[in-house]
Amino acid sequence: MKIQPYLFFNGDCEEAFRFYEKALGGKINELHRFNEMPPQENAGGSDDGCGGMDMSGMGDKIMHASLSVGDQMIMGSDGDMKDFKPIQGVRVAIGIDDAKKGGKVFDALAEGGKVEMPYGETFWAQGFGMCTDKFGVPWMVNAGDKPSP
């Protein structure tokens, strides 16, 4: 079993996933657009394949994206942008063995965003920091765990 974050964006999913591909050293596996979807009958009372959500005007926006980082995956979509709400009450947590690499990942994610807690040593880790990237996604980077006393 794996728990995989699924992030929703306000029209900039493709830009965000290209950013994450570079920042996290990952690889985009899928990038499907709304205008590529075949019509499907009986999908929630609509023939758009989206369970009745109004996808008119979504065109080349991203219906589904996936990014692999090692054996982990992050997925995302531009979803139904009319009802978009920024992410609240959760952070995407990244655990990295090497503190130096953790610092590089943190700096990459924080570029153009907001740092809530600068990356640095804590009592539990050689490196830890919290930021919200330029797309509004909140992150925690924890690297180089210290052994418990």
TrEMBL record:
Q: Which Gene3D superfamilies match?
A: 2,3-Dihydroxybiphenyl 1,2-Dioxygenase, domain 1
- Give the Pfam families listed for this entry: Glyoxalase
| Protein origin, superkingdom | Bacteria
Organism, per UniProt? Luteibacter yeojuensis
Taking every annotated instance into account, which residue ranges of this chain make up the domain Glyoxalase/fosfomycin resistance/dioxygenase?
3-141
User: Which InterPro entries does this UniProt record tie to the protein?
Assistant: Glyas_Bleomycin-R_OHBP_Dase, Glyas_Fos-R_dOase_dom, PhnB-like
Spell out the protein name for this chain: VOC family protein
